[in-house]
Design brief:
Layout (H helix, E strand, L loop, with lengths): L2 H26 L4 H4 L11 H29 L12 H28 L1 H8 L18 H17 L4 H19 L8 H4 L7 H10 L11 H5 L10 H9 L1
Helix pairs in contact: 1-3, 1-7, 4-5, 4-6, 4-7, 7-9
Bound molecules: zinc ion (2 copies).
InterPro entries: Fatty_acid_hydroxylase, Sterol_Desaturase_Related
Subcellular location: Membrane
Organism: Solea senegalensis
């Protein structure tokens, strides 16, 4: 098996495995108040049709575009040779963090440009903004050019930073988890943005706000670029508003 093929297989199966439990949560909705209390936009519950739309768009992209490019890669790219030495935990952490920081910077710039240029937005990024309230399957509702761009960075950044293949696989799965967490639509108290201190990570509250107010929170993972460039907007929960509407 070649390196690229394994990485894409890992990425797509991680998207499926990580998204499925949150899709179940969305389908249960108000029937599970213990979880529904954390829904960021409770008045915008995704329907089964919306979920199917997002999921099949992601599946179509992978079958029609990603899979053929992987097949071509099998003939072009060298077969994977795993180094004899495994990386230390410290190496996995430092190299993995470097990959995430680099990707975060690349996507911040790309994302900012694609929101400022109306034609680029319309043809490349608008697909991802079909829904104002994200849900797990919508994580990979991307146009082909956007998927190819993030795919290229995900593949090339670890090569550029000379990561061990094990580090690359780990950071691939971890970054998919972070992307899914951005889109779950719930502000759960145990997600990474709450576990990592000082608000270093944006998580679902920041990215949900980006889908509500698209000229804010451009960074996919970390908060620093949005703070530095003044594009950080805190999440406003409309939970209370909904409750008062219901009772009145
Ligand atoms: Zn998004
Ligand atoms: Zn956007």
């Amino acid at each position: 098996m070649n390196h690229g093929k394994l990485q894409i297989l890992l990425a797509f199966s991680s998207y499926l495995i990580f998204s499925a439990p949150f899709a179940a949560l969305d389908l249960l909705g108000e029937k599970l108040p213990v979880m529904h209390q954390y829904k960021i936009q409770p008045d915008r519950q995704p329907t089964l049709a919306m979920m199917a739309n997002s999921f099949f768009k992601a599946l179509y992209n992978h079958v029609v575009f990603v899979l053929p490019s992987v097949v071509i890669g099998v003939f072009v790219l060298p077969a994977l040779t795993l180094p004899l030495e495994a990386p230390t935990l410290y190496e996995v952490f430092v190299d993995g963090l470097a990959v995430l920081l680099l990707f975060d910077t690349q996507y911040y710039i790309w994302h900012f440009i694609h929101h400022k240029h109306s034609q680029l937005y319309r043809w490349v990024h608008a697909t991802h903004h079909e829904y104002m309230a994200p849900f797990s399957w919508s994580t990979e509702q991307l146009s082909i050019p956007e998927l190819m761009t993030v795919g290229l960075w995900s593949n090339q950044d670890p090569v550029l930073l000379k990561c061990h293949p094990l580090t690359t696989w780990f950071v691939t799965v971890f970054s998919i988890w972070m992307s899914v967490e951005d889109h779950i639509g719930y502000d759960l108290p145990w997600t990474l943005n709450h576990l990592v201190p000082f608000g270093l990570l944006g998580g679902a509250p920041a990215h949900d706000m980006h889908h509500q107010k698209p000229n804010s929170n451009y960074a996919p993972f970390f908060s620093h670029w949005d703070i530095i460039f003044g594009t950080k907007v805190p999440l406003k929960m409309n939970k209370r508003l909904l409750k008062t509407e219901k009772t009145s």
